[in-house]
Amino acid sequence: MEILNRFLSGIIMPTLLIALGIFFAMKLKFFYILHPVNTIRTMIKNQKGGFRSLTVALAGTLGVGNIVGVASAILMGGAGSIFWMWISALCAMSLKYAEVYLSMIYRKSKNGQFYGGAPYYIKDGLKNKLGFKGSYALSCMFAFLCVINSLTTGNLVQINSVSNLLPISPLTFGIIFTFLAFLAIIGGIKRISKITSVLIPVLSITYILVCLIALFMNFGKIPNMITLIFKDAFSFKCAAGGFCGYGISASLRYGVSRGVLSNEAGCGTSPCAHASSDSNSPHGQGCLGIFEVFVDTVVLCSLTAFVVLLSGITDVSSPMELVLSAFEKYLGGFGASVVLILCVLFAFATVICQFFYGIESLSYLTKKWVGKRVFTLVFCGVLLIGSVIPMDLMWQISDLAIAVMTILNLICLFLLRKCII
């Protein structure tokens, strides 16, 4: 699996993300970069109908990926991985716009409730190119991958990363976490969106303030840290002193893969949340998607990376230990405790959002209510199991699921490029 991940996540996915990200940015005439004020104005106008869908989408992206995922990228790929995370974010903005835009124009409605996502624009958008059977088979394959992703990236990775943080046994934590998640998800998208519309703004603002305090205490070291990021991004030495070229490969692979894990741009999951919006503006909702990537990767991931790199801590056994040690170094036990609680709540928001992605994808595959009930039980069961099993394998499965989904979705976005304006 490691060899396959290295090929897909280290070569194919970064190449497609950067190439197609630049392609769509050019197609969109870089409007979100050249005209940021107009983009923000459009986003604000769209908030009335799209804010809750935005917080649901942000709940799916803001979580372990922003904290543990960034630390993992630094441990595995060095400081240079943060540079490639930034590059992937700039490319991801146009890709996020494209997939959200498509989800809006190909979405469906039932009983006044909108729904949709990547499987729908793959099936309906590509049926003239691939034929109905071809497009439907491809959309079903993607929906199946979404279900798997919701059980791994959106479930196992999240709870496994936080199950050992509180002073209780992982099993006890898992039981409590699973019970609260069950209460949230049985209420459907309405209850999930109500929870995320409160949690996400509060958690994001609190985390930003904690990071800024830590950075202010180390303000003089920031220029050297920025230099290190750019220097390491193009270094021809790996952390262990290996052969030339490995350093760039590792930085690129982990920077891009953890960036995608964090903001999900290009992998086709968050369009499901945006499609449920009451908004009737594909362009406006697409601008919200761009904002989603900006907040997720450019702001929160960067803040995490800066705090970790400024700490200079490297002798740790896990990414979470690295993060907590970094905050504890500058803010003491109180700072570490605050970040610990934020991690748990971010993980909770992500889990309930990813359940929504999974159940919507399953609904595309089968309309039978039994399937939904079984998936709900399986999701909760996996959540409980994830609190006590080893972590390494989960990252491997997560990377593979995201890589395959992203590659498939990116190809479909390119085939549907003429629909995006």
Describe how the helices and strands are arranged:
Elements: H1 2-27, H2 31-34, H3 36-45, H4 47-61, H5 64-77, H6 80-105, E1 108-110, E2 113-115, H7 118-162, H8 170-185, H9 188-216, H10 222-233, H11 246-263, H12 271-275, H13 282-311, H14 319-365, H15 369-386, H16 392-415
Antiparallel strand pairs: 1-2
Helix pairs in contact: 1-6, 1-11, 1-16, 3-13, 4-9, 4-13, 4-14, 5-11, 5-13, 5-14, 6-10, 6-11, 6-13, 7-14, 7-15, 7-16, 8-14, 8-15, 9-13, 9-14, 11-16, 13-14, 14-15
What do you see in this structure?
- This protein has 421 residues and is an all-alpha fold.
- Helix content is 81%, strand content 1%.
- The protein has 16 helices and 2 strands.
- A hairpin with a 2-residue loop joins strand 1 and strand 2.
- Helix 5 crosses helix 14 and helix 8 runs antiparallel to helix 15.
- The chain is globular, with a radius of gyration of 20 Å.
- The two termini are 38 Å apart.
Keywords:
421 residues, mainly alpha, two-stranded antiparallel sheet, 2 strands, 1% strand
Secondary-structure element order, N to C: HHHHHHEEHHHHHHHHHH
**Overall mean pLDDT score?**
83
Shape: globular
Give the helix tally. Answer: 16
Strand residue content: under 5%
Helix content: over 70%
Strand order of the largest sheet: 1-2
Rg (CA only): 20 Å
Distance between the termini: 38 Å
- Number of extended strands: 2
Oligomer: single chain
Query: What ranges have pLDDT less than 50 throughout 5 or more consecutive residues?
Result: 237-248
Largest sheet: 2 strands, antiparallel
What is the structural class?
Answer: mainly alpha
